[in-house]
Each structure stands twice: as C-alpha cells, then as structure tokens.
Amino acid sequence: xTIRVELQKIGILGLQLIWHFLHFIVSSFYFVVGIATTLESxxxxxxxxxxxxxxxxxxxxxxxIVVESDEAYNTLKIIxxxxxxxxxxxxSVCLYDVEGVLKQSKEIILKKVKHASVFQTNEPVQLNxxxxxxxxxxxxxxxxxxxxxGNFILANKWRKTSMxxxxxxxxxxxxxxDALKAVGCGGPQPDLILVYGPTRCHLGFPAWRIPYTEIxxxxxxxxxxxxxxxxxxxxxxxxxxxxxx
Length: 245
Fold this sequence. Notes:
By secondary structure, the chain is α/β, with parallel strands linked by helices. The protein is 48% helix and 12% strand. It is built from 7 helices and 6 strands. α2 (75-88) links the parallel β1 (63-67) and β2 (92-96). The longest helix has 45 residues, at 2-46.
C-alpha cells in the first residue's frame, strides 16, 4: 500500500510539473507576441514601415467602433481614438455600445473632437469634408427600429392586402429593408467594424446594416495603439471583397 501511495504522489507531482511547464510555454508565447506587436505598432507610428504610410482611405467610407459598455466609460480614450481616425481621413464613424454609455458622453465627445458633427437619420448621408460625422447607437436602437419598421409594414402593406382579400401575409427581406429606411433607421452600412473589449463579436450591432462588413477585434480599449489602428485599416484596404459572390 505504501508503494502504491508513493507512486500516486509521484504521478500527481508529474502532472503538476507538466501543467506548470505548459502554462509557462503558453505565457511566454503570448508575452513574446505582445512585445512584437508593441514594437511593430511603434515602428508604424514612427513611419519606419513605409507600406503603412499610404493608406487607400477611400475604401473606408463608413467605419463603426463597437466598445464594451464597461470600457465605454473611458471617454478620454474614445476621444483620442476618434482624433486618430480623423487624422487618417475617416469622415464617418458610428459609435456603439450595448447600454448606451457613449450616448451619455455625446456632448463631451462633440466638444473635444474638432469639427465633429452628428449624423442625421432623416437626411441623405453626407461626409463631413472638414471633420468627422458621428453616429451614436446602442442595443435599444436596434429593438426600436424593428418595432417601428414592423408598424410601418403593418400600416402600409398588411392592411392593404387584407382589404384586397389576400390571406397569406409574408414579409420579405427587401420590404423590411425599405421599411427601416422609411422610418429613418436604415443608416449607412459600415465597411469596417473595430471591436474594443474582451468579446470577439459585434455585441448586438444592428444586423441589417452589416451584411458585408469586415469585423476586426482590437483588444482592450485602454491598451489601444495608433500603429495597431493603422495596421488594421491597412489590412482591410488590401483585402478584396466579393460581397457574397
């Protein structure tokens, strides 16, 4: 029995050593990757990597920033990010978080970001040539949009078809798209979404506005880097999009 117990202890100790060794290897790998990313970002920011100096910014007509609500309270970082985007030539940005924290900071953001203007939902999309046009969204906007579009279809289509004697009433995708535009909830489709936070998803950003949108995860907002932003936009501009074909 004593030998068996000793062997079990040795086995457990061996497994613990293997676990700690694997943990060390993985931690070292991510540490090296982090250093390499930081160094690359620094080189891009300083202009040493020349291929990033010429961005085809026309490929990014509309850009969306999705932020975790907890990180959205960091207004200074949001303002700094918008200033970077404006300096790169981005003219239309949609700011989104689930709880609407960014909406609460709208006045401060508009004051701090030079030549910033608010996107008007009922007017044609016009790019701000001198500054940047900002749109503020939260998850409630998506829910409200669906309700308003549904009521619009009910008032303009279903009642007419019921009066004409039609019984089968189905809503097509094109009808929903037209209804969303009619109630002022269409909005421009972002070419690129940058997600800041631990979650690698769009966090409920209105799905009807991102059928062909590229989504990139940028990590924590507090750790954002100018070079990483430039690299993300550069990678997007170099990708050929087939738009579902």
